[in-house]
Amino acid sequence: MTTTEISKPPADTAVLRRIWRLHFWVGLFAAPVLVVLACSGLVILYSQPLDTLLNGHLLVVEPGPQTVPLDEQVAVAKQHVGATDTLEAVTPPDAQDSSTRVDFVAADAPGYPQAEADVIQVYVDPYTGAYLGQRSQLSGLVGWANQLHRMFGNDGPHIQLPSLGHLINPSAYPQSTIPVGIGNLWMELTATWILVLLASGIYLWWPRAVEAAKPLVTVRWRRGGRIRWRDLHALTGVVIAVIGVCYILSGMTWTRYWGENWRAVTATVTPSTEIDAPSTPAKLGDYDRLGRRIAWAAVDDPVYASQPHAAGAARMSYADIDRIAKDEHMVPGYSIFPPSDSTQDGAMVYGSYTVVNHWPQRVSEQRTLYLDQFSGLTVANATAAQDGALSRLTSFGIAMHMGNQLGWLTRISATVACLGVLLSVLTGLLMWWKRRPSGRSGLPGPASAPTRASTPKRAMVTVAVVAVVLGVLFPAFGLSLVVVLVAEGIIAARRDHPSRVISTTTSRSVDPSPE
Q1: Is residue 131 part of a domain?
Q2: Are 252 and 263 in contact (CB under 8 A)?
Q3: Coiled-coil region(s) at which residues (predicted)?
Q4: What is the DSSP annotation of 47-112?
């Protein structure tokens, strides 16, 4: 048997090769989800004009000289749903040419957190009282985009995972586990790996002596082929990286597992100011549907109670509540939730009318008005100012994520991010296609022995520390990382087995940045 001396690559080159391999495989894993998130995100960003375009017959009406009382409109809506369907919310028109929407939930609809109930939306002309039609909230282009963007959330199979909130404060979080949808957990896992993808991409782009000829902020269009796509891929990735990290982190606060644990942390570290008012057993989050109507920081807020009244006392009408909401300067598009009465310790607890500003919203627009169902007096007025600092920061990130906080500026930045993601995936695919050897897949194999030997220990320690930190912060990622490392170990053991040692190795020059 003859052997030749193995040429070791320089340390920087060895690190680049290993980071590139990581970047490639993570990109291959994350690319399909990135495409789904970018496409569905674009639809959600422009859901209002798209919805108006596709469903104008439900949403747009011809203004008239006067409107029909709101309670009569609600009565019309009730006539067109099942007798057992529950009225959940009334949304008065938010403009002169808008219809009234009345939401119902089917009696057999599974509730949160096991699933997020599908809402039946009934539309009524406020000027004529005519029934315009109805639809499922999750139907149509916008509905499907919402479902895809959250990977169907808790709908479908779910598993029970340990609750951090229960460990921190068992009285506030009595359940020791959280039911987590498989799709939602997959989204959380992929989102964390996307952070790794962005970080490794920044490392590959970063200027260094071994790649002195590589441009940083220009594209070598005339070079054509892989070089052109590489430059465009790198430049696009760097431009959207910061925005991408912000979107991933703010989006993680909505995940069923990590997001709920983060909610418990924020409530413990920076608790919100409690409102001194009697409450019902219900929580505002009971009305949350795809996060469309209830602000993140308000999900755990109680629904406050009305003052006891004499038996047979009449509730105020929806028209009365609507008038009060307008007088209180609620943002047009607000929803009115009817009171829900209950019995506690043999005593009747009367719920209140709950008026919630339309979501998505700016942090300054986050507001919930609780009105006594008999007198219309304000029981509580909850705003973001009463939330803890971490909750307000989370709400700010969510408002930026949805493109609302700074108006069109954030809408444009979100659009650029979505288009940039699609361009990055496309250029990455083109790079691979141009680079792969003819008739072969071109997928990177394990790091060679010389590359492993040349990798500096400090680089390995740095990567290990970052991996451990991410694994602790994001448990789903940590578990997946253990699985990957075990698989890598098995492959390495098979590769290094004496019966598989390669007798002759020839060294060749390799591009230090295969990307």
Answers
A1: no
A2: no
A3: none
A4: HHHHHHHHSHHHHB----SSPPPHHHHHHHHHTTS-TTPEEEEEE--SSTTBPEEEEEE-TTPPPT
Enumerate the H helices of 206-291 as residue ranges: 225-252, 258-269
Establish if 363 belongs to a structural domain. Answer: yes
Number of structural domains, the chain? 2
Check whether residue 202 and residue 265 sit in a common domain. Answer: yes
My answer on whether 251 and 376 are in the same domain is no
Domain boundary among 359, 387, 415: 387
pTM: 0.84
Q: Cα–Cα distance between 225 and 515 in angstroms, integer? A: 13
Domain span at 97:
62-126+274-387
Report the distance separating Cα 487 and Cα 13, nearest Å: 25
List Cβ neighbours of 185 (8 Å cut-off, separation of 6 or more). 159, 161, 255, 256, 257, 476
**Are 190 and 218 found together in one domain?**
yes
- 162-187, pLDDT tens digit by residue? 999 999 989 888 889 988 888 888 88
Structure token pair of residue 38: 């970018």
Q: Which token pair is 381?
A: 């007025």
Assess whether 515 and 492 both reside in one domain. Answer: yes
Rounded CA-CA distance 121/337 in Å is 14
For residues 41 and 35, the answer to whether their CB atoms sit within 8 Å is no
